[in-house]
C-alpha cells in the first residue's frame, strides 16, 4: 500500500516532502500510513498508540542529540546509500554506511545514560 506508485510517485525514494503536498481529503486518508500500518478493524494492533509514542520519543531524542549525515570516503566524496531491503515481508532496510555523531559532550552523556538504563 505504501509503495503504490499511484499514491506515491517514486515510492522507493526518500521524499518526505511528498506529505506536504496539498491533496483532496480522500487521497490524504489513503496516503496516511497510520490508517493501515497497524492493521484494520477488530484485528488492528492494540499496541499502536504505545508503538507510535515510543517511536516518536526515540526519533525526537536522536534528532535532538545526534548529527546524522551521509558517510564520506577517504577522498571526502559523499557515499550515496543504495536503497535495498533485506526482508520482503517486513521491508527491513539493508545496512548502509552513515556518519552519526553526538552534537556535544552533554548529548553524548544523555545517549550513554539512556542506553545504560
TrEMBL record:
Cofactor dependency: heme
Pfam families: p450
InterPro entries linked to this entry: Cyt_P450, Cyt_P450_CS, Cyt_P450_E_grp-IV, Cyt_P450_sf, Cytochrome_P450_fung
Keyword Membrane: yes
Iron recorded as keyword: yes
Cellular component terms (Gene Ontology): membrane
UniProt keywords, alphabetically: Heme, Iron, Membrane, Metal-binding, Monooxygenase, Oxidoreductase, Transmembrane, Transmembrane helix
Domain of life: Eukaryota
Signal peptide feature range: none
Positions bound to heme: 45
Cellular compartment(s): Membrane
GO MF annotations in UniProt: heme binding; iron ion binding; monooxygenase activity; oxidoreductase activity, acting on paired donors, with incorporation or reduction of molecular oxygen
Family: Belongs to the cytochrome P450 family.
Protein name in UniProt: Cytochrome P450
Species this protein is from: Laetiporus sulphureus 93-53
Taxonomic placement: Eukaryota, Fungi, Dikarya, Basidiomycota, Agaricomycotina
Amino acid at each position: 500500500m505504501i509503495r503504490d506508485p499511484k499514491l506515491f510517485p517514486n515510492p522507493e525514494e526518500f521524499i518526505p516532502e511528498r506529505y506536504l503536498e496539498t491533496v483532496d481529503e480522500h487521497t490524504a486518508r489513503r496516503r496516511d500510513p497510520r490508517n493501515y500500518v497497524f492493521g484494520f478493524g477488530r484485528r488492528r494492533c492494540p499496541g499502536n498508540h504505545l508503538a507510535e509514542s515510543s517511536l516518536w520519543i526515540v526519533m525526537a531524542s536522536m534528532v535532538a542529540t545526534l548529527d546524522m549525515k551521509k558517510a564520506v570516503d577517504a577522498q571526502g566524496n559523499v557515499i550515496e546509500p543504495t536503497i535495498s531491503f533485506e526482508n520482503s515481508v517486513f521491508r527491513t532496510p539493508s545496512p548502509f554506511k552513515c556518519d552519526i555523531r553526538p552534537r556535544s559532550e552533554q548529548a553524548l552523556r544523555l545517549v550513554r545514560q539512556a542506553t545504560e538504563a
